[in-house]
């Protein structure tokens, strides 16, 4: 069972969101620590979905925070930290009527991240895995 399915299954069998996330997992909404994301190299990143969950996307990143909300880009969403480790983070977020999601990222190095994400966007479910790779400097 994948990590995302295990979390979803644990919540679905009656633990509930608060029990699933645990008290120590909650951070200040909108400003969780997520130190791993600050260690990613800034610049132009290419996000490539392995299973066709989205078109390849280029992003100019100062840090990795925008990778949390790939299906809710640019929205001000409330984020809750589920896991914050040196090489992996998991964040659950809600964007009001625009939907919600949960994203797990694993850092291979400061220029390569593996992403699993799932949730609801515009009333429809989504679930995909992707790889984000730094490909150069940002061009403005």
TrEMBL record:
This is DUF3617 family protein. It comes from Novosphingobium pituita.
């Amino acid at each position: 069972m994948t990590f995302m399915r295990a979390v979803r299954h644990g919540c679905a069998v009656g633990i509930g969101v608060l029990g699933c996330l645990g008290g120590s997992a909650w951070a200040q909404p909108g400003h969780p620590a997520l130190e791993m994301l600050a260690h990613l190299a800034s610049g132009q990143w290419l996000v490539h979905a392995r299973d066709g969950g989205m078109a390849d996307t280029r992003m100019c990143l100062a840090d990795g925070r925008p990778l949390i909300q790939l299906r809710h880009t640019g929205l001000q969403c409330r984020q809750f930290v589920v896991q914050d480790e040196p090489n992996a983070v998991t964040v659950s977020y809600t964007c009001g009527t625009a939907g919600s999601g949960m994203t797990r990222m694993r850092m291979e190095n400061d220029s390569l991240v593996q992403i699993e994400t799932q949730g609801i966007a515009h009333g429809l479910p989504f679930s995909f895995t992707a790889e984000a790779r730094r490909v150069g400097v940002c061009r403005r």
